[in-house]
Structures are given as structure tokens and as C-alpha cells.
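Input record, target 12 of the design panel.
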């Protein structure tokens, strides 16, 4: 479905105002049930396309997920990627850098985790943290982080030139929705393990994060590595929208089963 792809795509250089983007948008769909059938179909398509991608072994797909805390990165991976062959997929979480990571340039760990040919790589957070949390908390001077947008674009162009298709999703939730999800984590015993009081502190910097995200989206949405701002207050819609974009992306990549380099008619299996 072309519509959702284009609706959420950020154009290069676009001035993004997240306040004007509706986190609760659902493209006229009313509920989970309406979306479920389409999501199920997309999952089947993705599974088939991934089979081809893996067999072909010539290109790879990198999916970048960024969001505020409780934005739904984990849920997206769980629901959208269900049905993907685990052998052809790798999820990498980007936490505060280890001492080894800190001893290298900021892109080192991202490059190491980039998907090999035939693979789908998922970044749960990513190299963008180095212009998000790092910027919001002044972990390095502005003179350092402000150069990173171009570095990121060059890095992603480099990956793209080597056969990696990149799609980046900002899961856009409202501040109220974040509060509701935090509350649910406190209230529900099966979600309580996710409570991290540091996340509540981080919420105080909401506006600073929005500004940092707006810069990321405007500066780093490129033809070879576009950003999509996904309305994510409704989880079922978020899942559907992302699956639509992934199916379209994989279809454009058009992976093919490799042709046999032998003649199947003459090849004989010995007894
Ligand atoms: P969940 O949303 O399920 O809690 P998470 O992605 O928040 O998962 P955590 O281990 O709770 O995972 O948090 C990772 C933390 O690491 C985040 O606060 C993030 O901002 C921080 N982080 C990631 N990359 C960097 C970086 N380059 N520099 C500093 N902090 C970073
Ligand atoms: Mg967290």
C-alpha cells in the first residue's frame, strides 16, 4: 500500500515539526481487528521475501528503530517481525557504550552490527543515540555532535553503496501516551520488570528530545536511507504501518532465488 509509505516518509531537508504530526493517526482504520488481516498478510509476504533475500545473498536490509522510552520498539520487533526466519535476522540493542566502544569512533559499533549480505539487521536504538541522548545531556560539546549528521549520512551512503537498504522508523507517541504506558508498567505485574525510574527522569527532557529528533529527521532522511515518522499511539496501527513499509521496501529490493550453476536434468545423485 503506497499511501502509508508516502504519508510517513520524511523528505530530505524537510523542516519537521513533531507537534504537527498526529501520534494518534490511524488512516481511517478503527480497530485492531480491521488491521489484523492486513498485518497477517504482510507477515506472510515478508517471510517469503526474506527467504529470497537470504537465498540470493547479495543485498541486506537494515531497519533502524528509534523512539522515546515506552515508544514501542520492543513491541514492534515482536509483532512485525514475527514469522521471519531467525537465522536470517539479527537484532542489536544499543545501550550506553561500553569502555571498548567508547575507545572507538561513535560509528564503530554500528558498522560492526550492520547486516551481512542476505541478512535483515534490526537496530533497537542505534548510532542516532549519539545525536539524541548525547546532545540532550551535553555528553560531548556541540562542536562535536553537530558534525555527526553528515558523518551519519556518509556512513549510511557507504552501506547503501555496498548493497544495504536502510529504512529508519521514529515511533512517534504523545507525551500523554508515554505517561499512560509508564503507569501500565507500574500497575501490571507482567510489565513491572520494564519499570526504570531513570526513564521517568528522562521524560523531563521531552521537549529537548523532540528538538533533537526534529534535527535528525530533517538532516538524515536521505534517498538511500529514509526516515519515517510513524504514528504510534495505537500499537496495532504502528505495527500495520511499519509492516506495509517493510513489504514495499523488500518488494523494491526484489530479491531472486539464485539460478543453479548446474543442469538439474543431468545431475545424478549417486546411490
Ligand atoms: P526499553 O525501552 O525496553 O527500556 P531501552 O532501549 O531503553 O529499552 P535500556 O537498556 O533501558 O534499553 O536503555 C538504553 C539506554 O542507553 C538508553 O537510555 C539510551 O539513551 C542509552 N544509550 C544508547 N546509546 C547511547 C550512547 N551512545 N551514549 C549514551 N547513552 C546511550
Ligand atoms: Mg529503557
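The sequence produced for target 12 reads:
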Amino acid at each position: 500500500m503506497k499511501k502509508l509509505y508516502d504519508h510517513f516518509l520524511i523528505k530530505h531537508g524537510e523542516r519537521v515539526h513533531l507537534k504537527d504530526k498526529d501520534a494518534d493517526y490511524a488512516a481511517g482504520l478503527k480497530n485492531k481487528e480491521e488491521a489484523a488481516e492486513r498485518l497477517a498478510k504482510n507477515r506472510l509476504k515478508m517471510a517469503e521475501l526474506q527467504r529470497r533475500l537470504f537465498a540470493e545473498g547479495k543485498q541486506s536490509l537494515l531497519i533502524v528503530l528509534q523512539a522515546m522510552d515506552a515508544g514501542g520498539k520492543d513491541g514492534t520487533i515482536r509483532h512485525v517481525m514475527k514469522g521471519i526466519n531467525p537465522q536470517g535476522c539479527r537484532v542489536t540493542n544499543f545501550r550506553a557504550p561500553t569502555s571498548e566502544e567508547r575507545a572507538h569512533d561513535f560509528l564503530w559499533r554500528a558498522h560492526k552490527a550492520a547486516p551481512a549480505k542476505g541478512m535483515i539487521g534490526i537496530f533497537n536504538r542505534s548510532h542516532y543515540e549519539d545525536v539524541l541522548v548525547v546532545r540532550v545531556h551535553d555528553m560531548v560539546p556541540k562542536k562535536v555532535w553537530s558534525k555527526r549528521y553528515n558523518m551519519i549520512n556518509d556512513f549510511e551512503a557507504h552501506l547503501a553503496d555496498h548493497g544495504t537498504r536502510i529504512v529508519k522508523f521514529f515511533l512517534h507517541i504523545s507525551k500523554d501516551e508515554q505517561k499512560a504506558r509508564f503507569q501500565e508498567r507500574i500497575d501490571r505485574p507482567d510489565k513491572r520488570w520494564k519499570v526504570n525510574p531513570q526513564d521517568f527522569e528522562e521524560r523531563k527532557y521531552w521537549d529537548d528530545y523532540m528538538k533533537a529528533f526534529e534535527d535528525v529527521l530533517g538532516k538524515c532522511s536521505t534517498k538511500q536511507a529514509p526516515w519515517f515518522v510513524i504514528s504510534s499511539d495505537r500499537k496495532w496501527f504502528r505495527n500495520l504501518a511499519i509492516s506495509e513499509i517493510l513489504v514495499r521496501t523488500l518488494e523494491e529490493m526484489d530479491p531472486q532465488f539464485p539460478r543453479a550453476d548446474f543442469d538439474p536434468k543431468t545431475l545424478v545423485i549417486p546411490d
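The beta strands are 60-67, 89-93, 120-124, 164-172, 227-231.
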